[in-house]
Amino acid sequence: MGTIEDTLTIDNRTLLFFVRGGRVFRNSLPQICRNLYPNDSISYASSGGRLAQLCESSMFAVEGSGAYTCKLGPFVPVSAEEAERLRGQRN
Which of 5, 21, 69, 70 is the most buried (most CB within 10 A)? Predict the structure, then answer.
C-alpha cells in the first residue's frame, strides 16, 4: 500500500495514517485505548514502515505509557477533506 509517512492520534479510538503519495487511512480501534490521547505517538512493529505489514488486529504501543498496547481496527481510506475534518476534532 505504501510507506507510512506520519500517524496522527485523533482520540482514544481513532488514528490517521498518512501514506506516501498523499493517501490517508482512518483506523477506528475496536475498543477504547485508555492511555491514548490526541497527539500521542504510537509505535508498532513493521518491516520498512509498509502499511501492508499492519492490518486489522495488529497491536501497537502508546509511547510514553510504559508497555500499554492496543489493537488496530480496519484501515479505511479517507479523503484529504475528511482527514482535515478529523484533525480539527482533536481536543
Answer: 70
